[in-house]
Amino acid sequence: MKRTLVALLLVASSTGTAQAVSVNSVITDSVQLTVEGAAIQSTRVGSSYSASGNNITATTLGGLNGGSATAAPTITAGSYEQTTDGQAFQFTENAIIGDTVVTSQTALSSGGRLDAANLYSDSFSQTGGTAGALAGTLTVGGVATVTAGGAGTTAIGQRTVELSVFR
Predict the structure, then answer these.
(1) Neighbours of 123 (CB within 10 A)
(2) Adjacent-strand bridge partners of 135
(3) Which residues contact 94 (CB under 8 A, 6 or more apart)?
(4) Which residue in 28, 100, 107, 156 has its CB near the most CB atoms, within 10 A?
(5) Phi/psi at 142 (5° precision)
(6) Which of 102, 95, 97, 94 is nearest to 120 (CA)?
(7) Is the Cβ–Cβ distance between 75 and 95 less than 8 Å?
(8) Exposed, middle or buried by CB within 10 Å (0-12, 13-18, 19+), for 33?
């Protein structure tokens, strides 16, 4: 009987206690303004030469002549003739003259643009952005206002509200 009474008292006393609750509230306001810089990505194309065929004899092979680290080669003409007159033949000759090496890139102008870029055959270029009217503000009430700028700009206004309740 005593054990049952102690157990009942423990259960009754635990149900009437207050429970702790934690409330966490976070509000974050932000404005992000970005002006892109000028950029160049350029890949140099190399030189190559090939000749192939059947029923063809090369009296003088064609190819690439000269060239250096700073100068592209030139094509040397070949001399080819049909091996057996009156027979079918096939002949293919291909040449690619590569890019001359660029040893320096033009400096950026004061506006963040490349005035006269030296580019290779395989290139991508992007002009720098101009801020223009680019602007962003936050009011006391947390309202973000952004104003578009010139080309190459981004303006982002954001409000994040987080509410967490823990027991």
Answers:
(1) 14
(2) 147
(3) 48, 49, 50, 51
(4) 100
(5) 85, 20
(6) 102
(7) yes
(8) middle
Six-digit token string for 38: 């000028």
Give the integer Cα–Cα distance in Å for 166 and 132.
48
User: Alpha carbon of 105 to those of 69, 71, 125, 128, 129: distances in Å?
Assistant: 17, 17, 13, 16, 19
- What digits encode the pLDDT tens for the residues 16-66? 556 778 999 998 889 999 998 877 788 888 889 999 999 999 999 999 988
b/e code 155-165 from CB counts within 10 Å (16+ = b): bebeeeeeeee
Q: Is 13 helix (H, G, I), strand (E, B) or coil?
A: helix
- Res 12 pLDDT > 70: no
129-144 confidence digits (pLDDT tens): 888 889 999 888 878 8
The amino acid that residue 161 corresponds to is V
- 75 contacts: CB under 8 Å, gap ≥ 6: 49, 62, 63, 64, 65, 95, 97
Nearest CA-CA partner of 61 in 75, 72, 82, 47:
75
Model pTM?
0.49
Only one residue has tokens 């702790």, namely 20
Phi-psi map region of 57: left, alpha, beta (phi>0 left; psi -120 to 50 alpha): beta
